[in-house]
Amino acid sequence: MSADGQIVSKFTLVQLENGNHNHESVKQRLLDGCVPFSHQVAGHKCGINNTGVLKHPDGTILKQLQPPPRGPREMHFYTQVYAKDCTDTRLLELQQHLPKFYGTWSPRESPHELYLKLEDVTRRFLRPCIMDVKIGRRSYDPFASKEKREEQISKYPLMEEIGFLLLGMRVYQINSDSYITHDQFYGRSLGKDTIKNGLSRFFHNGQDLRRGAISLIISKIRRILRWFETQTQLHFYASSLLLVYEGSPHTLDGQKHKQTQHRPQNNSSSHQSRSALTQNTNGTLGGAGGEDDGDVGVEDKMQFGQEEAVEVRMIDFAHVFPSDTADQSYMYGLRNLLAALELILKE
Ligand SMILES: Nc1ncnc2c1ncn2[C@@H]1O[C@H](COP(=O)(O)OP(=O)(O)OP(=O)(O)O)[C@@H](O)[C@H]1O
Ligand SMILES: [Mg+2]
């Protein structure tokens, strides 16, 4: 599969120079509108040997292929699931739980650099609240070295028991028109007694617990679990669920969403504000609008009611392997995640 000629735009990562490899310096070198994806909550970020996840001007995202065998394995997985001549009903069903895949993409001037071109699952949201949850009892695949296994286990020894790990989140705060973010270290700090509360933070907008969003997300996770209960051909290791819901209490035309549970909007939290601040766990601040919001036309943003305003998609397939048994480890994680979400709702 080659780069899609229609969407390729001039894109150059000019040689990094003078050891100045921070996020901003890399960004400045991305020409013709490809920029670091500002709605990324976990995973590899822009760095010296890595451009992380980028946003293409057409609204899709570009995930740089990781070094072999991980990158080619992920590419093979997407290619297999989205093959035009695919007749495997399990794989066809799986498509609805994944971001859409638009093939591979390469910068015109570096045709050997490969990226996966994917649907941006957050794109239709005005104020996306996003969480990346790694699923399964083991983060290492069956071919991992002893060192790799030990490294993964030491990162979160509770993975085996809990079956999932919060890798990162950002949550819109309605009163301040800002985002709270939590990184992977927050997730690793959560134990059996605190995981439910840790998870519930994702659904607090500073005023209310977003029960509607929790219910919708539960339904979508149940559908993914049903898919796993009927398939025995693939095992997923170190793969994630990306959860997204709408943080804005408004639709584009300024109306409140149907069935919204929010109290009247405080004037200071207009969703059009570009000066609002993001506070992360390290205490740094940034704009709530998101640095790349400007390149997505408002007509592309969410224009639907609250009942449609969530996404749950499986992402990160660098460690997916063929199998002939059910993926008990992933299902264990999904069931525990569902149980925790259901408990939050009951409180
Ligand atoms: N299709 C998507 N739509 C929106 N955001 C996405 C999408 N895919 C990835 N992201 C964002 O990018 C982050 C990292 O993605 P991903 O987990 O695929 O990469 P990674 O962990 O760096 O990769 P790998 O483990 O293969 O090295 C996710 O946490 C999420 O915030
Ligand atoms: Mg990841």
From TrEMBL:
Top-level taxon of the source organism: Eukaryota
Name of this protein: Kinase
Enzyme category, top tier: transferase
Keyword Nucleotide-binding part of the UniProt annotation: yes
Enzyme Commission number(s): 2.7.-.-
GO biological process: inositol phosphate biosynthetic process
Catalyzed reactions per annotation: 1D-myo-inositol 1,3,4,6-tetrakisphosphate + ATP = 1D-myo-inositol 1,3,4,5,6-pentakisphosphate + ADP + H(+); 1D-myo-inositol 1,4,5-trisphosphate + 2 ATP = 1D-myo-inositol 1,3,4,5,6-pentakisphosphate + 2 ADP + 2 H(+)
Annotated Pfam families: IPK
Similarity-based family: Belongs to the inositol phosphokinase (IPK) family.
Keyword annotations: ATP-binding, Kinase, Nucleotide-binding, Transferase
Gene Ontology MF term list: ATP binding; kinase activity
